Description:
The chain has a five-stranded mixed beta barrel with strand order 1-3-4-5-6. It has helices spanning 26-38, 127-136, 139-142, 153-163, 168-175, 180-201, and strands at 2-9, 18-23, 42-49, 62-77, 83-100, 106-112. The protein contains six helices and six strands, in the order E-E-H-E-E-E-E-H-H-H-H-H. The chain is globular and about 50 Å long. It is of the alpha+beta class.
Amino acid sequence: xxxxxxxxxxxxxxxxxxxxxxxxxxxxxxxxxxxxxxxxxxxxxxxxxxxxxxxxxxxxxxxxxxxxxxxxxxxxxxxxxxxxxxxxxxxxxxxxxxxxxxxxxxxxxxxxxxxxxxxxxxxxxxxxxxxxxxxxxxxxxxxxxxxxxxxxxxxxxxxxxxxxxxxxxxxxxxxxxxxxxxxxxxxxxxxxxxxxxxxxxxxx
Length: 204
């Protein structure tokens, strides 16, 4: 068991995935400062119900039971004056308990899940890296400087899952899977469904 400062988000961060954030609350400015100063990770947990921004008198957000550790890989001052950072997903963890510091920052008692061993990308899943390569041609995605190992099924699956416009509840459920073939099966089915829906919507 280890203690990890938490950054609850309405979006799900996946291992190997990257996500841009705008930081304006003091508790998270402090978290970012400490993380960059000490090169230390923090935890990103999906908000099942509730708001990201603290509201006086509002109930605490309901968090997921597991999340992803994150590190800051880029930062900049945004045109609106806010601090912009890009975070990258690392190890998954299970969240057992939370406490709140005086600043309002949540801290979690977590247990890190085992590091994911490299898994070979079998030919039957060739659709997945093809879709990921096509997404990486988009200028917005290019700015993320993603560099997945296309021979590693975990990296392809998680990077693709981070980029796909899916409901966050779906991403959260797939984040919890511990078996790479189950994850690939789910992703393949999702892509087939998206393809079928686009075909139905296409004009004659």
